[in-house]
Amino acid sequence: MGEGNDIPLVGGKSFTAVAINCAAKAGEWIKTKLGNHTSLSIKYSAQDLVTEVDKGAEKMIRNLVGTHFPHHSFLGEEGVEPGPEASTKALQSVKDAEYLWIVDPIDGTTNFVHGFPYFSVSIALAHWGEVIVGVVYDPMRDELFVAEKGKGAYVRGRRMAVSGEQTLRDSLLATGFPADPNYAQPLNMKQLQAIAPQVRNVRSLGSAALHMAYVASGRLSGFWEIGLNSWDLAAGALLVKESGGAVTDLQGNEYHLGVRHVAASNSHLHGEFLQVLQQAEAGS
Ligand code: IPD
Ligand code: CA
Ligand code: CA
């Protein structure tokens, strides 16, 4: 996949090659900084953290993308004011760009800050609002998850496929615990309470992008979370879809860049999954 001949490319690299290169370079650098970050700030709430490594990694990716594709648009978490309103506005202003790179330089900053070795770099490219390339890189395991629209998804060079569990009873799910104490947190707790007794178990590892990559690779049967942003989900959503899974909002509408409350699964148990989530919401 690459741009037409009329647009000059430095080195002539394809979109996917650039996405992989950016994720690998940023990830390697982030890994060297584990346990050595020097500045820690709070963004929107006490649970919303940022370090100089988040900012540095985003700058590195932005510069690399800009070198190859200077006319493309760029939406990175660290370039947006904190909070859901600002995120929605930022997405609104670029979502219909011809080519839009959507980047979370470190997905799992809380883990990174605590030395918990589970975080990722998430890079997606959307064309007229539709994700066409998705890359999620886990630098601690050196695992690169890559998808191209219509061409499948791969991990460590092997084609990925979602898991085969047909029912919630046989499933391993994951969720993310939201920080927002007014809406998202109480709802997530209700959902967890409704789902936990019906499944094999529920995990919460702290990187939405990696949770999505694990659904794609069949390591998780499903994942849900309330209140995410486009940079948490865009790459992972393509990974799941290209691996045969389902990604929707909690009402069952197909994933698009504006989805904040997400359910992703191997598709077999999606109906049952949504039903339990919806019942919990109705009863909350
Ligand atoms: C967070 C992670 C976490 C999820 C949060 C996200 P960040 O992203 O994906 O797993 O539960 O909702 O905000 O802040 O580390 O990029
Ligand atoms: Ca994130
Ligand atoms: Ca982040």
TrEMBL record:
Pfam families: Inositol_P (PF00459). Its EC number is 3.1.3.25. It is an enzyme of class 3 (hydrolase). PROSITE patterns: IMP_1, IMP_2. InterPro entries: IMPase (IPR033942), Inositol_monoP_metal-BS (IPR020583), Inositol_monophosphatase-like (IPR000760), Inositol_monophosphatase_CS (IPR020550), Inositol_monophosphatase_SuhB (IPR022337). It comes from Paenibacillus glycinis. Belongs to the inositol monophosphatase superfamily. It catalyses: a myo-inositol phosphate + H2O = myo-inositol + phosphate. This is Inositol-1-monophosphatase. Keywords: Hydrolase, Magnesium, Metal-binding. Its cofactor is Mg(2+).
